[in-house]
Please model this.
Amino acid sequence: MPAKPDPDAVLMLRVKRGDRVAFAELVERYKQPVMNLVYRTLRDETEAEDLAQNAFLQVYKSAKRYESRAKFSTWLFTIARNLCLNELRRRSRHPAESLEETHGDNEGQPQRQYEDKKNFLPPETLLHGELAQKIEEALAELPENQRTAILLCQQEDLSYEEIAKVLGCSLSATKSLIHRGREVLKQRLKPYLRTGDWHGPK
Model:
């Protein structure tokens, strides 16, 4: 039985032919997942919005070269991740400037939380308030590739194979990244859940 065509790839092929309505539909469908990935990688709301817009701009500009060999979502998240990596590299070269951008305009204001499509830790009833903040902090401390693998794993339509393509590594390496990342998060959450102290007993 032939594989069912990716409906997003079908939309993107329409974009390739100049269909702006199809492009608007793709943006509406993916703007939140892309914002989630970018924001939780960069921890900067303004930068997340700019980079997410840039990702869709690149999609539109690359429409003529698009080939539906892979799922559209895989291609889109690869673009978004590459933009994040470029920004992280820029920050590493200009740390003082990046610190001002991250904290300057938003000082004293609560950080924006983007809603995820599904959660992996812990039960949904606990993902509120302080614990949710601690999960975000733990995610932020993971190496970029582990964090991105876990965040992509939360996208319901992405398989391990597709996540591996976004990360540019093997399937086994991707599974290992997700496993190690989840184990680190679980270990960091355990003492907080047990004692209320994020760092656990001294």
